[in-house]
Design brief:
Blueprint: H1 2-23, E1 47-51, E2 54-60, E3 75-82, E4 89-96, E5 101-107, E6 118-127, E7 133-136, E8 140-144, E9 155-159, E10 162-166, E11 173-174, E12 177-188, E13 215-220, E14 223-228, E15 232-234, E16 241-243, E17 248-251, E18 258-272, E19 275-280, E20 287-290, E21 304-308, E22 318-322, E23 331-340, E24 348-351, E25 366-369, E26 376-386, E27 398-402
Antiparallel strand pairs: 1-2, 2-5, 3-4, 3-6, 6-7, 6-8, 9-10, 10-17, 11-16, 12-14, 12-18, 13-14, 15-16, 18-19, 18-20, 21-22, 22-25, 23-24, 23-26, 26-27
Length: 409
């Protein structure tokens, strides 16, 4: 029994040694990995936009952890703000879904919306369940200090040239001030004209309001951003330049038969290092307008009438009319009127004839009238009609005499 027991112990020792050697061979297993800390990847696209006393932060939430595991639960977020003289202080907490856009609005304290312009920096931290973060986000900088004055007293009015905006102008704007108009399309009539509100300049050779035209900065239907760059004047002969607040603008890019909402803000751009950072004042109260087309097109000009003898027109006298073409974008067709000068009758519509199909409308600036009688005097006039059915004033009448013998003499 003793010999067998010693043999068993020897066999166990040899087997253990062989197993150890096998573990050290080419088939060795990888070293055990530490458990994942589930640290979300840091944000890299954080942006900060100041409007008045508020700063809007925008970023995209990460989808995975730093060890590439998919995030499946809402991620805790810590937002911090760093000023020139202080560390990054926490200003808010959120929980956001992975991979989704996220926003946070920070209301600045009074000390940061007064005084001189200085840079402030925001960061966001993506936290795990133990409130730890792998690293902060990229820095998103904006400006503290007194913002441009808010736009007040905004009114809007539809005109034949476009939507006219007016606001309360203020003096002493810093050079570089611009006005940002946000126009939001709320609704558009189905089947209605979507032509621009700007009519032909021939009707308004000069802008009576003498306001700058708002130009499109970017197009993102149903929202559009329009920029107004005011003029600049020197405060005095040797002083700094100041922007001149125009107190309004003309939006010629709006469409008729639509409902829009407008807001306006004053903005000043400051250069910080190599970057330009916008400092925006509070936006105006929103104003809504329905742009119904009630504005007639331009009155046709340079109407000419020529009598065509019966000999030249198959035995029937005629009158040929011509006038300057209408170039407005919403032009639809012309109407031709005639009256007998020797009677008290009102002008009669010649074209298009009552009850005629749409294909019979007159779209060229000419008309051939063969329904006249010899030995009569006629007066002709022409009007223009737009796609909303608005008719212009009739042109100045042109009078012709049709001779009794049908000749041109």
């Amino acid at each position: 029994m003793a010999i067998g027991s010693q043999y068993s112990k020897w066999f166990a020792i040899v087997a253990a040694a062989l197993l150890t050697a096998a573990g050290l061979g080419c088939g060795i297993a990888a070293a055990p990995q530490p458990p994942s800390l589930h640290l979300p990847k840091p944000v890299t696209d954080l942006k900060a936009e100041r409007n008045g006393n508020q700063v809007l932060l925008i970023w995209t939430m990460p989808k995975r952890t730093t060890d590439n595991q998919r995030l499946r639960q809402p991620v805790p977020v810590r937002i911090c703000l760093q000023t020139v003289s202080r560390a990054c202080d926490t200003v808010g907490h959120l929980q956001e879904l992975p991979g989704k856009p996220a926003t946070f609005t920070d209301v600045l304290p009074a000390v940061l919306v007064q005084g001189y312009t200085r840079t402030i920096t925001y960061q966001v931290f993506m936290l795990n369940a133990q409130a730890r973060a792998a690293a902060p986000s990229n820095d998103a900088q904006t400006l503290a200090g007194a913002a441009p004055l808010p736009v007040t007293g905004l009114t809007v009015q539809a005109t034949s040239q476009g939507v006219l905006l007016h606001w309360q102008s203020v003096p002493n704007l810093p050079d570089g001030t611009v006005f940002e108009i946000q126009r939001t399309l709320l609704s558009s009539s189905q089947g209605s004209s979507t032509k621009s509100t700007a009519k032909n300049a021939i009707r308004h050779p000069q802008n009576p309001q003498k306001l700058p035209t708002a130009t499109r900065k970017q197009k993102q239907p149903p929202q559009q951003i329009l920029m107004v760059h005011p003029g600049v004047a020197a405060a005095n002969a040797s002083g700094p330049k100041e922007a001149v607040d125009p107190g309004g603008a003309l939006d010629t890019d709006a469409q008729f038969n639509a409902t829009y909402r407008y807001t306006v803000a004053r903005i000043v751009e400051h250069t910080v290092g190599t970057k330009k950072i916008r400092l925006q004042g509070a936006s105006s109260q929103p104003v809504t307008i329905q742009t119904r087309d009630i504005f007639p097109p331009a009155t046709p000009q340079r109407l000419v009438a020529v009598v065509v003898s019966a000999a030249m027109n198959g035995g029937i006298p005629a009158v040929d009319l011509s006038w300057s073409a209408n170039r407005e974008s919403d032009f639809a067709h012309y109407r031709v009127y005639r009256r007998d000068v020797e009677s008290s009758a009102i002008p009669v519509l010649l074209a298009p004839a009552l009850g005629s199909p749409p294909s019979a409308t007159l779209v060229t600036p000419t008309y051939h009238d063969v329904s006249i009688e010899a030995d009569h005097r006629y007066a002709y006039s022409v009007s223009a009609v737009d796609t909303s059915g608005n008719e212009s004033q009739p042109s100045q009448e042109v009078v012709v005499d049709v001779p009794a013998n049908g000749s041109n003499n």
